[in-house]
Amino acid sequence: MLVFLTGASGYIGSAVLRALIAHDHSVTAVLRSDEKAAGAQQSGATVLVGDLSDQDLVARLAREADAVVHTASGEHVDPDFIATVLAALEGTTKPFVHTGGIFTFGASGEITEDSPVSPPTLTAWRAANEARVRASTVRTTIVAPGIVHGRAAGIPTMFVPDGDAPVRLVGDGTQHWTTVHVDDLAELYVLAVERGDQDGYLVAASGHNPTVRELAQAGVDGQAGVDGQAGVDGQAGVDGQSAVQASVLAESAAESRERLGTDFADALLLDQVATGAHARSLGWRPSRPTLVDELRSGYRAD
């Protein structure tokens, strides 16, 4: 298949590009600079230097492709992009795979595709766009990734120590994050393209749901080269034990909001658990290392 891919130079999009090529699909990508285009070309894409705000270009590439995958989702990009792609694909069987996110479901101990939505302010803008995608007669699938990790990038880099500076928790660190390796996630996008479901929705979660405290400690252990069980400093009596190490620092939710910004902190403070069971039932097989394992190994690029 010829796939029109957005975000091909980004964290998720570059992994999707590699996976599509590995599965013998052809990829056309739009990137905003020659520098970004060069990297995507090296990975096997046919690249046009342009902008997703050019709706004539978007419409043409959507019509020429056999499928569209949108990983460059953004608040100011999506409304026009979605409208243009849906119009271009109307009346065809070409799939459109759109990117959502796990934050959409708010705090929940058992997130599935049928869970009620309660997004934080950070991602509340997604709701109207996703509703438009799902209401279309086009063959659409929304992929909602958990916290994405792998290749020494993404949000989890906050748990990689910087010299002697402490690794800070987000809040008290008791909240769970649902996670997915970027390369496993890319395989799910390929599966979504090849299935071409009508109104598909896939929670992309490996089933690994560590607490933030576990992640921070794994990062400290990775720097030290040990798999220890050191304690948490900066907050007396954490877990009912005396603090024994100053490399991990707890903080209040208010302190996290001040440090990270209110909207971002509120999203990271969500307690979320998901298994990705539905995606597995369709044949998805996540197999990469867990985030805890990667952090304990030093969170290095492959």
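(the above was protein one; protein two follows)
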Amino acid sequence: MPGKEQSTIEQSQLSGNLSADENKLRDIYKNSSDVVFRSFYIGENDKAMLIYIEGMSNVQEIDEGVLSPLMNVTRDTGTAVDSLIDKKVAVSDVKKVKEISECVKEIASGNPVILVDKQNTGFALGLSKWEKRSVEEPQAEMVVRGPREGFVETLSVNTSLLRRRIHNPKLKMQSMAVGRYTETKVIIAYIEGIAGQELIDEVEKRIKRVDIDGIIESGVLEEFIEDDPYSPFPQALTTERPDVVTANLLEGRVAILVDGTPISMVVPTTLYTLLQSPQDYYSRFLVGTLIRWLRYMFFLVSLLFPSLYVALLTYHHEMIPTALLISAAASREQVPFPALVEALIMEITFEALREAGVRLPKQLGGAVSIVGALVIGEAAVSAGIVSAPMVIVVAITGVASFTVPNYEASYAIRMLRFPIIILAGTLGLLGAMLGILLIIVHLASLRTFGEPYLSPMAPMKGKDMKDILVRAPWWKLNTRPHSTGKSNTNRQSNNQKPSPIRGKE
């Protein structure tokens, strides 16, 4: 079969016969017009071949630092080719390859390969170069105060952004390839001595067992390594911000970086980590605590507000103040649908408008979302399809969902909102409470890389609470989280509370 024949060719050794090795590589790259085979002579007598992929290698460096010095060299009798390349080739990274598969791997990575006649060893040159996006501020994770750098699609740039922040050599980065055809490079980053070895081994084991044609984005890999694939809640923190990854590495977590995407993953994560923003730690602790409490409150509002409104309006009139009840009843007088159907219509319409705003070009997306919501809401109220209070409830719920800093976590809330609305519309407050209990039971049983999803609230860890319900001052955050920083708990010295300089009496 052709596939088996090509696989056999790739696994073979370089023979030293340049024509035979060239034919093997040409057969592998058959019908590939972007693969360049450049014949030349080292000096006057040694025939050689340079193979690279157009657009992935630095052609100028190839011409000036490789071909020109090798073609113009005067080779002394007895001088080995590898010694000649070491002396004449002006390339910092030169790697010897002995198998056809190694040549294919290096060429696919953008590194040109030199084959020399009567030599069973080739030379891969570190001259990869391709177009890449410059470092910019992440559009989905903006902050008022903090770094403006974000990851890009090039893995080497992303690792350098982490190295710029953590200068210690204990920052380790293990590399592996995932995908039969794409062979996507994946980096596991951690700080040795802070991250637990069991966590590192577990992350490595889960990634190695992935067997798929290709990894296009980190979300594909995330689905293969998470603990509970049927949970709506994300079990890895996804971020474009190098400072967020750095902070999590310093707490003993492990980062997973995938080539070709700016989105990195951090494991393990908890529900409270998903509700935290880097802005909390860059502002003063009183402001950070206030904003965090506001975020927790609107997190609950985005999940429960429509269902509570439906339950009270349908079954529990006695719990609504009389004036408000009369106003709501008057606004619903012309509405032909029950509150449950009304809420579902408005929620589905709002979600459709939000998705339309995301998919449209940036210049039109915001305008369509805002204008569409205003026009449709006003028209629906005027036509008597929905009531004005329901429009207000759905609008407040939509605004509240935007306060969740992690976009994947907001998806979970948007998804769970619908079953709770249905439970509230059929069973009243009892149904809403049932939905809340089911969510709490699920979260309490959920694990992410062996760690409880509700940690440190369940199980309760008192020392870690100073960075959950409140954002304690930095001089009080002297220990790492118990669940991730077990091997190295202290991250700063004690007694660093600032105090004014007292003058002489």
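Reviewer note on protein two: The mean pLDDT is 86.
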